[in-house]
Amino acid sequence: MDTGYYKFYRDKKLLLVASLPLLGCCVAEIYSNTSDVWGFCLFSLFFFFFIFWGWFRKPYIETTSSYIQINYCEKLKWSDVERVTKTTGRGGAIYHLWPKDISKYHLTMFQKIMMKNNYSPFYIQPVMLQERELRKLQKILRERVPNNNLEEK
Fold first, then answer.
1. Which one-letter DSSP state was computed for residue 148?
2. Under a CB-based contact definition with an 8 Å cutoff, are residues 89 and 152 in contact?
């Protein structure tokens, strides 16, 4: 069993694609002669730096030999994960990690909403990961959680 420490980051190409139009709008407004130039420029720069900040954010998923942490949620111990299920919807596949006893964990508001709708409060959206990282994460999930329905590739 692999006991390494892994960090899975969001795909940074999406952040770049989202930030370049904002930067272009900002540059175009600087060279135009409208009265609201500075307001729009400050607004555009704010969003540009907000998206650019995503490059330096903490990882989307952190795994060790003892826990997995998804986004800013509480650390989920591997020994507490009962099973992993994969569901597919309009947005793609989602991996749900089902804990044995949910009362041990402090849930965010969104996790509580997910739980009330019969979904696991701990879930991973593979769309956020690059293909190489997704394969590595699937391997880790197969090794750590024996009760899973993840297909072999």
1. B
2. no
Q: How far apart are CA 5 and CA 28, in angstroms?
A: 44
CA 41 to chain CA centroid, Å, is 29
Name the E strands within 10-152.
61-63, 67-70, 76-77, 81-89, 92-99, 122-124
* Residue 92 region by backbone torsions, left for phi larger than 0, else alpha for psi between -120 and 50, else beta: left
User: Per-10-residue mean pLDDT for the chain, 153 residues long?
Assistant: 50 67 70 65 70 67 87 88 87 87 89 88 84 86 82 52
pTM above 0.85, yes or no: no
- Which H/E stretch holds residue 25? helix 12-30
Residue 137 vs residues 9, 47, 66, 102, 140: alpha-carbon distances, Å: 12, 31, 15, 23, 5
